[in-house]
Design goal:
By secondary structure, the chain is mainly α. It is built from ten helices and two strands; from the N terminus they run H-H-H-H-H-H-H-E-E-H-H-H.
Length: 343
């Protein structure tokens, strides 16, 4: 077995990955829809029974979330006497915190406690790849959990979650993630898929943990310093880990592997450009959300923000409330002017 390939730097990533992409593009003489259709027919292995099972599980996640919100999260918010606005948003964060804690823990178990050592040696993810190869049951279970959850998340983002400034980008993210999960399973790129999920889920755990403490620091008519301290610590950890996991490790471990190492292991690997285009789009969305983090940190340093909050928390209901308040104030002012003229 060859020794593990050391993780490259950004310069080597750009040089080798770009070179591999250009070389693959030049060597593709008959690229087009016909080749894509033929490649899909020859290499994709995804049965209708698997799709149906994933859809049933997505409906199950939706039903489970409604039940948890109705019987657990909302009663907990009432018992803790959260502020009305925080009580309305807390069930969403509690639900996501529970799921992402479970999914990230399972991903960590797969990568660090089993024979799937792709975190330490990402290049090995494509060694021994074969068309239609069997997917290990433990990885197949992770794919079922994640694929069905992202299917549920498409509905939840549009109809259950608080609508935010980046909700359209979030919907696009869920579509890209679902397509990547389904296609990587069908083409048996599940090894690198587990690594992608692991590098992303940790930030969602920290984000929802931070938001929960933001919601719980004002409860029962009092301010709780412990939740405020946990929210501040969670915000710092979230900001640092976002850069480390999604903007440092993700390009160097995943993009380098999919753009360069995959061609070294499987010269004619199917749907090479398709997968790398989606992963690059995912990277761009990670950079987009990192700008929100930088904006928040800048506001803290400039003294424009006194406490931790979500810079995306400008939902439609809040905007409508602000508009209604402004309209009422304008009517009161107008009535006052009319009375003054009558005097």
């Amino acid at each position: 077995m060859p020794p593990p390939e050391p993780m490259p730097g950004y310069g080597e990533l750009l040089r080798r990955a770009f070179g591999s992409l250009v070389g693959a593009a030049r060597g593709c003489e008959d690229c087009g829809w016909e080749l894509a259709r033929r490649t899909w027919a020859e290499n994709a292995h995804l049965g209708w029974a698997e799709v149906l099972l994933c859809g049933i599980c997505a409906l199950g996640w939706t039903a489970l979330r409604r039940a948890c919100s109705r019987r657990l999260f909302r009663p907990l918010g009432e018992w803790c006497r959260l502020q009305p606005r925080d009580a309305a948003k807390m069930p969403e964060s509690a639900w996501k915190f529970l799921f992402y804690s479970l999914s990230w823990s399972y991903g960590a178990f797969l990568l660090f406690c089993t024979e799937h050592r792709f975190f330490h040696e990402p290049a090995a993810a494509f060694r021994g790849w074969q068309r239609g190869m069997a997917v290990p049951r433990d990885i197949a279970l992770a794919y079922l959990l994640q694929g069905s959850f992202y299917g549920h998340s498409l509905y939840a983002t549009a109809y259950m979650d608080t609508w935010r400034k980046d909700s359209l980008v979030m919907l696009l993210h869920h579509v890209v993630a679902l397509v990547l999960i389904a296609a990587s399973y069908a083409f048996r790129y599940h090894n690198v898929g587990i690594l992608v999920l692991f590098l992303h889920d940790i930030n969602d755990v920290q984000l929802e943990f931070t938001k929960l403490n933001v919601y719980f620091k004002h409860r029962g008519g009092a301010f709780h310093r412990l939740n405020d301290a946990l929210a501040n610590a969670g915000c710092v950890a979230f900001s640092l880990s976002w850069f480390w996991f999604r903007l440092y490790w993700f390009p160097l471990k995943v993009l380098y592997t999919t753009c360069h190492c995959s061609l070294q292991a499987v010269p004619n690997i199917p749907f090479y450009f398709f997968f790398n285009a989606l992963l690059l789009l995912l990277t761009l969305m990670n950079i987009y959300w990192f700008l929100y983090i930088v904006l928040f940190v800048a506001k803290v340093l400039l003294g424009q923000v006194q406490e931790v909050n979500d810079v995306r928390e400008y939902d439609v209901a809040e905007s409508r409330s602000a508009g209604i308040r402004a309209l009422k104030e304008g009517l009161h002012l107008k009535n006052g002017l009319v009375k003054d003229k009558r005097l």
